[in-house]
Amino acid sequence: MKKTTVVLLSIATLFGLNGCGTDTPSSSVAKTYSKTPAEVYTQSCHKCHGEKAEGLTEKKTPPMNDRQAGELELDLYDVKNDGINQSSGTEHDKMAHNMQKLLEKGFDYDPKAMAQYIEKNFYKMPPKTAPAAEAPAAH
Predict the structure, then answer these.
(1) Residue pair 73/115 in contact by the 8 Å Cβ criterion
(2) In the prediction, which pLDDT does 18 show?
(3) Do 103 and 31 form a contact (C-beta atoms < 8 A)?
(4) DSSP state of 138
(5) How confident is the model at residue 16 (pLDDT cuts 50, 70, 90)?
(6) Within 10 A of 70 (CB to CB), how many other CB atoms are there?
(7) H or E stretch at 117
(8) Contact between 73 and 37 (Cβ < 8 Å)
(9) What three-state secondary structure class fits 83?
(10) Spatial separation of the C-alpha atoms in residues 65 and 53, rounded to whole Å
(11) Considering the entire predicted model, what is its pTM?
């Protein structure tokens, strides 16, 4: 009985460990990009989203300087994944189409790094509303 238990546990362990270490080499290596987020933005994105990510009304492109990196990252992820809008809940069909053309031209980027670049360089914090001025005290 004891031998049977040891044999069964050994077999179970072998089956359990069978899947370990089978990752493909590409999945364990971080993807590298030929351009920095700054290069991608200044060479491509600014044409539609503006020099300071303010958006261009004549091109009907939204601003990107009104959101922080976390929000932007979700949007950029959606754009790079055919506008699936599963993470940000917004429609990106037009930009997803444009993104395929940009990728063909070498304008690939990491959504997280690009979002951080845009926030760091262009984010405009909403103006703080000044507290209401107090009326002078009557004497």
Answers:
(1) yes
(2) 57
(3) no
(4) P
(5) low
(6) 11
(7) helix 111-122
(8) no
(9) coil
(10) 5
(11) 0.67
- Please check whether residue 77 is in contact with residue 64, taking contact to mean a CB–CB distance below 8 angstroms: no
Structural domains in the chain?
31-122 (1.10.760)
Estimate to the nearest angstrom the gap between the alpha carbon of 79 and the chain centroid.
9
- Tens of pLDDT, residues 69-94: 999 999 898 888 876 656 555 566 77
Contacts of 40 (CB under 8 A, 6+ apart): 107, 108, 109, 114
Residue 28 CA to residue 2 CA, distance in Å, equals 41
Half-sphere exposure of 128 (CA within 13 A, CB side): 3
With H, G, I as helix, E, B as strand and everything else as coil, classify residue 46.
helix
Rounded to the nearest 5°, which phi and psi values hold at 52?
-120, 25
Closest CA to 40 of 27, 31, 53: 53
Residues in the chain: 139
- pLDDT for 30 equals 84
Distance CA 85, CA 126 (A): 25
Q: Which amino acid is at 15?
A: F
